[in-house]
Amino acid sequence: MSQVLAYDGGNRVDQARADGVLRFILRGSWTIAQGVVSGESIMVDAVSSDRPQRIYVDGDAVSEWDSALVVFLTDLSERCRTLDLPLDLSGLPDGVQRLVALALAVPERTDAAHEDKVPGFVESIGLQVLAAYRGSGAMLEFIGEVLIALARTVTGRTRFRTSEILTVFQQVGPDALMIVTLISFLVGTILGFVGLVQLEAFGADIYVANLVAIAMIREMGGMMTGIIMAGRTGAAFAAQLGTMQVNEEIAAFRTVGISPVEFLVLPRILALIVAVPLLTIYANVVGMVGGSVVSGALSEVTLPQYFAQTSDAATLTDWAGGLFKATVYGIIIAVAGCMRGMQSSKSAASVGDAATSAVVLSITLIILAEAVLTVVYQVLGI
Amino acid sequence: MAYGEFVVQRDLNFIVNRGDVFIIMGGSGCGKSTVMRALTGMQRPSAGTVWFEDARLWDLDDSARQRVLRRSGVVFQSGGLWSSMTLAENIELPLREYTDLDPQEMRELARLKLAWVGLAGFEEFYPSEISGGMQRRAGVARALALDPEVLFFDEPSAGLDPISSRRLDELILELKDSLGATIVVVTHELASIFTIGNNAVFLDPVSRTQLATGDPKWLRDHSDDPQVRAFLNRGDAA
Fold first, then answer.
1. What is the domain range of residue B92?
2. How many angstroms separate the CA atoms of B236 and B228, rounded?
3. What's the N-to-C CA distance of chain A in angstroms?
4. Is B80 within 8 Å of A252 when comparing Cβ atoms?
5. ∠ at Cα A200 (A194, A203), nearest 5°?
6. What confidence score (pLDDT) does residue B238 get?
7. Residue A3 has what pLDDT?
8. Do residue A256 and residue B70 have CB atoms under 8 angstroms apart?
9. Is B237 inside a domain boundary?
């Protein structure tokens, strides 16, 4: 008696019974291209009605095979094991028998299975809050380390690393001039356009100069420079330090007793504290030139008038207020970039995450600081 | 030794004698490198301490610990060279930190250390410009910068071809004999273990403790622990 149990394209399993022995006769091509046959339906059919004493698998009629056959037989073996049925695979090609034996040789490690649970909505909010809490703790710790390093340097207990600071300064200052020029010139022209359209209605064209000067000096110059530097330098710091983490360079500093915070982080922070305000002064000037170009082209105001008006408009207090903000942004960018880099673990993905997160964190903090400082200035009447 | 609540190794107790080439061995993931991190001051063990002569390394304050650790040098798996500096500058930096030598003297010393490891003439090269085996040897030169009494090697032969790895072994023995340095090597390379080691500890990832300590050649033939014998005989029943 023979009966077709499963037929899937090019392969099939026939069944035959004799003296309590159930024979599965495999036919055709058992390859991945044909799909994988599940042992379940075959076993259920075979065992439910009349339980055999043992099962014999006959592979003489298999024309070709690959892992698909091994998966089927491994599945069958496991099912037989749970049912306590002897399974005889000796009728299969030698390679197949060995591969099945290999797959079954080491029992599945249940404790090694990864728990890949997707948290629910409420749970994920909770996890995020916890992560933010831990993150701010880590940030405070990092800032503390930086301050200790700063104190040690100021009190002369460690060397002041002039050459490191100058190297970093070259990268973050002069090398950033081109992009700062372009962006702040365009921001100046945008402010000029917006101001001109509104002020022309009142015949107050000349006040475009005031608007551009005040907006650049107090807010936009520093903020645009900050955002450029966050993308350009903050990401670079995070990637540099992260890669040094991967290469064990940071660990190497520790073993020779050099604090990586003193050697790597402090020079970067100090360089940015100097570079960002300087770039901001430059950005302010370029922005005002941008405003003057728009004003000169589209209104009656002449360039000398424009610049005379500009120098009347901006007071030293405005400059000081703007540069203080720029200094704060410099600190934010350097601390966020270095912190994320130092926190990075030893993998390529984690260095990428560090760079991304450094930029996101510093831009967020820059806008936040801008908002807070603007309100504080307002209250103080600056 | 633990990461959070995950205990890597417990109840470790071994002695490295002056002049030993001491091997920390065991299968992958058994915590060899973690033990090394505790010995080199990079990671505080969750319990216990490391004795360096009379000093209890992990009970000292930071600066005292740094002074003790300065007497040791570490060679990292990937070399751990500072990529933004040339090989000579890599060696000069520790000297710049802890000595009052002038630049000319420091350069002479850097040249000497590089010559010892067979890299004379590579002073002005950056780490990325030389091969992996050379980086490893340059890492040795940097570890030698402060003339340490103890040298730690983390998997020195990992990823090296047999000839480079053999030359590194020879270098390790040479340093031991000529400088009188004590060497601690983390490795699972049997060829290295038998060529250079005269003392060892075997860490087991399953029981998470040390199974044996002593001369690896003696352990290979006489250890009463079947796992240790299996490891040292490449799994062949001994």
1. 2-232
2. 11
3. 100
4. yes
5. 150
6. 47
7. 46
8. yes
9. no
Rounded to two decimals, the pTM is: 0.76
Name the residue among B192, B197, B200 with its Cα closest to residue B167: B192
The CA distance from B10 to the nearest CA of chain A, in Å, is 21
Which pLDDT score is estimated for B149? 87
pLDDT tens-digit readout, A297-342: 988 888 899 999 998 888 899 999 999 999 999 999 999 999 999 9
**Dihedrals φ, ψ of A15, to 5°?**
-125, 140
What is the residue extent of each domain of chain A?
A: 2-105, 158-380
Contact A49, A83 (CB under 8 A): no
Residue A232 banded pLDDT, cuts 50, 70, 90: very high
Q: Are A286 and A180 spatial neighbours (Cβ–Cβ below 8 Å)?
A: yes
Enter the tokens of residue A133: 């809490």
Read off the tokens for A233: 């330098």
SS3 B166: helix
CA B159 to the chain's CA centroid? 16
| Helix, strand, coil % in chain B, rounded to nearest 5 | 40, 20, 40
- How many distinct helices (H) and strands (E) make up chain B? 9, 10
Distance CA(B238)–CA(B232), nearest Å, equals 9
Distance of CA A298 to the CA centre of its chain: 45
Superfamily of domain A2-105: STAS domain (3.30.750.24)
The single residue listed with the structure tokens 């091997």 is B23
CA distance B61 to chain A (A): 13
Residue B157 lies in a domain: yes
Chain B residues whose CB is inside 8 A of the A259 CB are none
Q: What ipTM was estimated for this complex? A: 0.80
Per DSSP, which regions of chain B are E strands? 2-3, 6-7, 21-26, 51-52, 55-56, 72-75, 150-154, 182-186, 199-204, 209-214
Q: How many domains does chain B have?
A: 1
Asked if A248 lies within 8 A of B40 by C-beta distance, the reply is no
| C-alpha pair distances (Å), B105 with each of B12, B88, B109 | 43, 12, 6
Q: Which residues of A touch B76 (CB under 8 A)?
A: 248, 251-252
> Measured between CA atoms, how close is B221 to chain A, in angstroms?
29
CB burial readout A14-27, b (16+ within 10 A) else e: bbeeeeeebbbbbb
